[in-house]
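Incident review: delayed structure delivery

Summary: a single-chain prediction request sat in the queue longer than the usual turnaround. Root cause was a stuck worker, restarted by the on-call engineer. No data loss occurred. The affected request and its eventual output are reproduced below so the record is complete for anyone auditing the incident later.

Affected input:
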Amino acid sequence: MNRLLVRYGVDVQHPEVSGAEHLEMLQIRDRLAELESTLTSEEQEALAEADRVLVERATAFYQELLRFLDLATYRREHVIPPAHWWWYLDVVSHLPLLTDERPSVKHSRSSPLSECGQRIMLRIRCPSPVGAPHPQSATSQKMRQNLL
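Output delivered after worker restart:
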């Protein structure tokens, strides 16, 4: 199995470590995104599972990262696109995933963005159905501003 993937899989299990280590984990996820089309089916499933764990623990990871850096500023300075959703843990942590929206463990070879990432990006762009009140609308609006 890809050594970066193994490391990422271990890293997402430990939200209690330092923000510096989380920064390194996000950089590893960037490298995995570049390699995603070359991963085997087994590796793609492992990546999707690790992504699912990261999403579930987004708040804990974000809180530790916040001690180390401001994600919104870092994204702007490094021109990180929303397709790299793992850099948006500050936003993801405020977007509740519904049980029927739980990310699948399969990555699609036809798409460079995992299903997990696609669902998160949809939640970032449209956190509630049109016309429906959103329980965190003020927070969500502030978080969406951080995307810019």
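Verification: The CA atoms of residues 125 and 144 lie 8 Å apart.
Action items: add queue-age alerting; document worker restart procedure.
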